[in-house]
UniProtKB/TrEMBL annotation, chains A, B:
Residues 111-248 form the Phosphoribosyltransferase domain. Residues 4-73 form the Bacterial purine repressor N-terminal domain. This is Pur operon repressor. Coiled coil: none annotated. Homodimer. Belongs to the purine/pyrimidine phosphoribosyltransferase family. PurR subfamily. Keywords: DNA-binding, Transcription, Transcription regulation. InterPro entries: PRTase-like (IPR029057), PRTase_dom (IPR000836), Pur/Pyrimidine_PRTase (IPR050118), PuR_N (IPR015265), PurR_Bsub (IPR010078), WH-like_DNA-bd_sf (IPR036388), WH_DNA-bd_sf (IPR036390).
């Protein structure tokens, strides 16, 4: 049965949005909707414009035999800024302050709408880069890693403080914990990450960067390369210059003490480090 | 600027898909796209049919002053069956068998495409039910909870074996661990779940149901109600009849021992327990 343009537009929009960074040949849609390739081509032209105008990202047509349609999710500068303001407003609640200069974040990290914003922001920063896996530290980084992994269409791996019976053989490194003055251990299941992977690390909270240094060493044990680190909240800049240089934060909090009556939340360096050019609407 | 129908269809499809279970007034779209309400109404009619034909779920128009458009994600029986077969094929790899009768699942639970299937399956089972929160046990249940929470548009909460400095005050219960013969403790941050919540529990692996009994007690401590439990893999039926009655499994594995050369994977009781009627295409 031939499918009408209006219905095709809905179906192709859905199909592409669910498959970021996957090349789909035009002939696939032509067969699926029993339509001429030229009609599908016109559909894609409409979808390209609508995606850009709705700030969903970029739809490209790659020519040639191995070509097809490719959807790269990404938001423009204005949308990114408004997402960061939303996150900042959520974070600024002084009830979040916990003993020891920690922040209660579990509500934000258990809210699918908030996680989508975080995922879209981080995926925009690394859009188009070659990344093989997202890495995070259990537990609260997991939903962030999941959301970023979804938009970048790569798997995510979970580093743990202690390995479990369900992980099989692991590789481990020691690191100076951000949350204690002790040297701790972090482990990753050997089979969860291929040797030589290009890894993007994400986490919820950074306080000194010890965890990141540990992840850097862990990635080296897997003969891979850490290509970047982005955290939701930075409470204390990394001590180490290399870590500092490669770390992006969405938000910053300063002077976090238990006696604080307010949280000083400011923007992190995310907007400076992200190139939005390809995701801007061109009118 | 007035937006053309073709572009509106793309934009509204995206808007609704990103907002499951959220009532959107037609006037919102009319203003957003500077179009007559009658045109938007026609758009929605096209989108309804296309969503159902593409097995995305149901789009409904609720009449009246407080009305609008509502998207309920859900898949039909055939799609559900094909997703289960995909998961079954992934699971059947004998290399997954770990010492002690455990299964390596981290690759599946770190793959966004696999997690989407799991999320859509479970969200279809509970479509339209009043659920206030998804609950899971750290660590491997988290991506499943996140995916289900996304499709049902509710928050998820994470139960831990030991509380962290970043959780604030907790409530805890003891439970008979599935993975050891000991009585263990599970804790949940007090502020993460409102009193009286209706809770859906999800997890990756069930072996006897001790964890589920624990979650049941924990939900009672929050004066809430556990309305269902769905797990990806059931390795051993719950010992307790009540737990057994309320537990749904996507897949089952039998006779899991370290010496096994094959994994006996079969379908769980998911298909029997799920009503797909409203998500079936009507031609």
């Amino acid at each position: 049965m031939k499918v009408r343009r209006s219905e095709r537009l809905v179906a192709i929009t859905h199909y592409l949005e669910q498959r970021p960074y996957q090349l789909v040949p035009l002939t696939f849609f032509a067969q699926k909707y029993n339509s001429a390739k030229s009609s599908i081509s016109e559909d894609i032209t409409i979808i390209k414009r609508a995606f850009l105008n709705s700030h969903l990202g970029v739809v490209e047509t790659l020519p040639g035999a191995g070509g097809g349609v490719l959807f790269t999710p990404g938001i423009d500068h204005q949308t990114a800024e408004s997402y960061l303001f939303d996150l900042k407003a959520l974070l600024a609640d002084p009830k979040r302050i916990l003993p020891g200069g920690y922040l209660y974040l579990s509500d934000m990290l258990g809210n699918p709408a908030t996680l989508k914003k975080i995922g879209q922001l981080i995926a925009t920063q690394y859009a188009g880069q070659k990344i093989d896996a997202i890495m995070t530290m259990a537990t609260k980084g997991i939903p962030i890693a999941h959301s970023v992994a979804y938009y970048l269409n790569v798997p995510f791996v979970i580093v743990r403080r202690e390995s479990k019976v369900t992980e099989g053989p692991t590789l481990s490194v020691n690191y100076a914990s951000d949350s204690s003055n002790y040297v701790e251990k972090m482990e990753l299941s050997k089979r969860s990450l291929s040797l030589g992977s290009r890894v993007l690390a994400v986490d919820d909270f950074m306080k000194g960067g010890g965890t990141v240094s540990g992840m850097q060493n862990l990635v080296q044990e897997f003969e891979g390369q850490l290509i970047g680190v982005t955290v939701l909240v930075e409470a204390k800049s990394p001590n180490d210059d290399l870590t500092k240089k490669m770390t992006t934060s969405l938000l910053n909090v300063q002077d976090l003490t238990t006696s604080s009556q307010v949280i000083n939340v400011s923007m992190g360096n995310y907007l400076q480090r992200t190139d939005f050019a390809r995701f801007e609407t061109k009118d």
